[in-house]
Structure formats: C-alpha cells, structure tokens
Design a protein that fits this description.
The chain has 139 residues and is mainly α. The chain is built from five helices and no strands.
Length: 139
C-alpha cells in the first residue's frame, strides 16, 4: 500500500473546492437567494457579506481537499476511479451537508423546504467535486 500523494491531494482538492465554490455561488445567488435573505431577516441577522463569504470560500476549498484526501485514503481498498470518488463523496455529503443542514432544521433556523434544496444540491455538488478532484489524484 503506497503513501498518499499530498501534493496531488492538494491539487485535486483545490479543483474540487473550485467546483464546490462555483456550485455554492449559483445556489446562493440564484436558486435560494430570496429564501435565504428571508430566513436571515426572520432571525434579525444581517445579509451575508465580505468576511463571511470569504470564510465560506476558504472552507469550501478545505472541504475539497478533505474530500480528495478521503478518496486517496480509501483508494487502495476500493480502487481508483469515479466509483471510489462517489463513495468518498457520500461520506462527506452525509457529515458536511445532510447532518449539519438537518440540525439547522431541527433548531428551527431553516425551513425543511430550504434545507431539502441545499441537501439535494449539495449531493450533486460534492459528487461532481469528488470526481473532479479524484481525476487529478495520482499516487
């Protein structure tokens, strides 16, 4: 069993993070913009801006790197390719998208409808990001 190629994890992770960031921009600027603004205003919270958005961009790149790292870690057992990238994406999706978004619904922060859009969108987003990042990964 070979070592994880950290340079390729970072390279693939940055590509995956770019996919996530582009997808999140489309989701939040086009698809759920009005619903998100209403949810924030209902809780007396300001619209998201500058440093908050920068934080989301940074964490999306970090999520891409973690996703490709997970792909690299399970690759010896499941083999290289899209199937293994999808398996890694399923784990990341559950913890980063499904679990955390479900918690915001349980706390009453978001409506179930708004959360469902994010969860489904996030599933497609992380699968595509994982496949893109895995495509660049080589041991």
């Amino acid at each position: 069993m070979g070592k994880i190629n950290v340079g390729r994890v970072i390279l693939g992770g940055l590509l995956a993070g770019l996919v996530i960031n582009i997808s999140e921009t489309i989701l939040n600027v086009v698809v759920v913009a009005r619903a998100m603004t209403e949810a924030l205003r209902d809780r007396n919270l300001p619209d998201l801006g500058g440093s908050t958005i920068a934080g989301f961009v940074f964490f999306a790149f970090l999520l891409g790197i973690v996703t490709v790292w997970l792909y690299a870690a399970i690759r010896p057992r499941f083999g290289p390719g899209a199937r293994t990238a999808i398996i890694a994406a399923l784990f990341v999706w559950y913890f980063a998208y499904f679990y955390s978004t479900s918690a915001t619904v349980l706390m009453g922060f978001y409506s179930a409808k708004l959360a469902a859009v994010g969860i489904v969108w996030g599933f497609v987003e992380i699968v595509l990001a994982s496949i893109a990042g895995a495509w660049l990964y080589k041991e």
